[in-house]
Each structure stands twice: as structure tokens, then as C-alpha cells.
Design a protein that fits this description.
The chain is of the alpha+beta class and 98 residues long. Strand 4 and strand 5 form a beta hairpin. The relative contact order is 0.18.
């Protein structure tokens, strides 16, 4: 749920692409997510910067930096000191400072 890092043109382009990839249900459990959330097939890889990852596995103050096609289909966590090993966010989120 990234709410910053977009301009109006980018929002229109992204929305058009995401509308074509929408799926009816969340693939995540538990499904205690905001009402009105829209889920899409995982076909795009985005670069997102955040302050930290909470103990609940949520991004704090996430900001969209763009899409990329040079990253594998797994999550790459980068810290201010360098890149962490590749991991699956669902199975193994990095620790939080909380």
C-alpha cells in the first residue's frame, strides 16, 4: 500500500496496467486487509523504498521508485549497508526494529 512517489501521468499508466492484471481474491492469509484493496497477478517488479518493516511484516512509509525488469521474482531486501540475501517476504520477512 504505497501512497507516494507517483505523479499524475505515472498513476494513469500504472492504473491501466494493473486493471488488466486484477484477480478476484487476495493470495495472502490472513485476509485482514483494507476494504477496497485490489489484487493483481504478480507480473510487475517494483522498487519500493521504506523506513522499515514492522513486526507485522508491513512497510512503514513506503515510497514507489519505479518498475524494473532486471530483478528476479523474489524479494530483494536492501539496507543502508548493502543488499541482504534474496528471500521470500511471505515466508521469511526481515526483522524489524520494533
Amino acid at each position: 500500500q504505497v501512497g507516494t512517489g507517483f505523479d499524475d501521468r505515472a498513476l494513469r499508466l500504472i492504473r491501466g496496467a494493473l486493471d488488466e492484471m486484477s484477480v478476484p481474491e487476495t493470495p495472502f492469509l490472513p485476509a485482514d486487509l483494507p476494504p477496497g484493496a485490489v489484487w493483481v497477478a504478480p507480473q510487475l517488479v517494483a522498487t519500493i523504498r521504506c523506513k522499515e518493516l514492522t513486526a507485522a511484516g508491513r512497510l512503514r512509509a513506503p515510497s514507489f521508485k519505479g518498475f524494473t525488469d532486471d530483478v528476479p521474482d523474489e524479494v530483494l531486501w536492501e539496507t543502508e549497508f548493502g543488499r541482504d540475501e534474496t528471500t521470500s517476504m511471505v515466508d521469511n520477512p526481515p526483522p524489524s526494529s520494533e
